[in-house]
Amino acid sequence: MHDIRAIRETPDAFDAALARRGDEPVAQSLLALDEARRTAIAAAEAALAERNAASKQVGAAKAKGDEVEFERLRALVTDKKAEIARLEAEAKAADEALQARLLELPNLPLESVPDGADETANVELRRHGEPRRDLAAPKQHFELGEAMGCMDFEAAAKLSGARFTVLAGALAQHFLDTHVEANGLTETWTPVLVRDEAMLGTGQLPKFAEDSYRTEEGWWLIPTAEVALTNLAAGEILEPGALPRRYAAHTQCFRSEAGSAGKDTRGMLRQHQFEKVEMVSLVAPEDGEAELERMTRIAEQLLESLGLPYRTVVLCTGDMGFGARRTHDLEVWLPGQDAYREISSCSLCGDFQARRMNARFRREAEARPEFLHTLNGSGLAVGRALIAVMENHQDAEGGIAIPEVLRPRMGGAARIAPDGTLA
């Protein structure tokens, strides 16, 4: 959410930043609502002062026996009371319209973000490992998994319909242990059902309601643990020394995949229900960009620990998410698709989410509270990591070599045979 005071100061700069994302100018319409709100508030305050003054004079007129003045003042008090109510209603309506409009507007990109309309304008920052091309006919993950009996898409479809999977096995514990033991993140268990306010705070509402699932009782199923983790600071004023806060959570995630008809219909690249380990950081404003680099590097090291080739790209203005100021995507190589596919997205949101959820901190004990800055990143998407491990470590016989870091969690086995047995 944006600060209307900043828009008042530099409306042209605000519109120019939105234009980089392909949005139309809105500053003047916002300022018109702001002016209407401020005018009504000022008029209500003036009317209140007049009413208070008249109220004090009513008793004096009555005491003097001046009935004419008494009646005039009493009528004035009544009129001013009605005028105040009308002006306060006008101010509230203008404020609600302003807030609703501000909630619909995306975050402003940092100057360092490349301009562009879509993913073709994203810029590669670095690359790790060589894409595997030695297999004559590399299989996709669903071909390997179904043959081994560890993925059952037909059973899932019978239970739930398309875009669901029944799985055996997981990578989440490796991710969590690394986050906690090597990177100092705090493992957190969060609900997967949240209220409207939580979805509003991180930017899923109101704009993206159709992308999420809502229960009949009014709770939302989280599309990512970012929603719950970031909202831990909602309405809080963190005391000096409390920042940075770094969290990690492994949860089920739920997305309607609205608008994705026909995309990745086979396998488990795009699911309605999936597992993800999410990272969230709360930091002071001046530490945001360094924290983004730190978070990105954490995700990169997880991919490296699994022996997976990847590239890191910075998203252009037209491909960046609604709440982000800068985003780094990690794209892992999938031999079965002969392509890089996103496996992690790390974003700096600045104070955009903090303003929506009123999350603040103090630098010193008596200092004025400031909005903190938030970041989020996948660390990693468990299903996509499984896909990448299967496809990159497959052999010509249809087996899969188990990355060394995972072997202790799999009884010391070094390979999954084509029939799904461990060896």
What can you see in these coordinates?
The protein is of the alpha+beta class and 423 residues long. The protein folds into two domains: 4-104, Helix Hairpins (Orthogonal Bundle), CATH 1.10.287.40; 119-416, BirA Bifunctional Protein, domain 2 (2-Layer Sandwich). 39% of the residues lie in helices and 20% in strands. The two termini are 54 Å apart.
* Helical percentage: 25-40%
Q: Write down how many β-strands occur, each being a DSSP E stretch of 2 or more residues.
A: 18
CATH topology of the largest domain: BirA Bifunctional Protein, domain 2
Number of helix segments? 12
Q: By CATH's scheme, which homologous superfamily of the largest domain applies?
A: Bira Bifunctional Protein, Domain 2
Which series of helices and strands comes N to C?
HHHHEHEHEHEEHEEHEEEHEEEHEEEHEE
Q: For the largest beta sheet, what order do the strands appear in spatially?
A: 1-11-12-13-16-10-9-4
Structural class: alpha+beta
Strand content: 15-25%
Give the SSE map.
Blueprint: H1 4-9, H2 11-20, H3 27-64, H4 67-104, E1 123-128, H5 141-148, E2 151-152, H6 153-160, E3 166-167, H7 172-181, E4 186-187, E5 193-194, H8 196-202, E6 213-214, E7 220-221, H9 226-230, E8 237-238, E9 245-254, E10 273-283, H10 288-305, E11 310-314, E12 326-334, E13 339-350, H11 352-357, E14 360-361, E15 370-371, E16 373-381, H12 382-392, E17 400-401, E18 415-416
Parallel strand pairs: 4-9, 8-14
Antiparallel strand pairs: 1-11, 2-3, 5-7, 6-7, 9-10, 10-16, 11-12, 12-13, 13-16, 14-15, 17-18
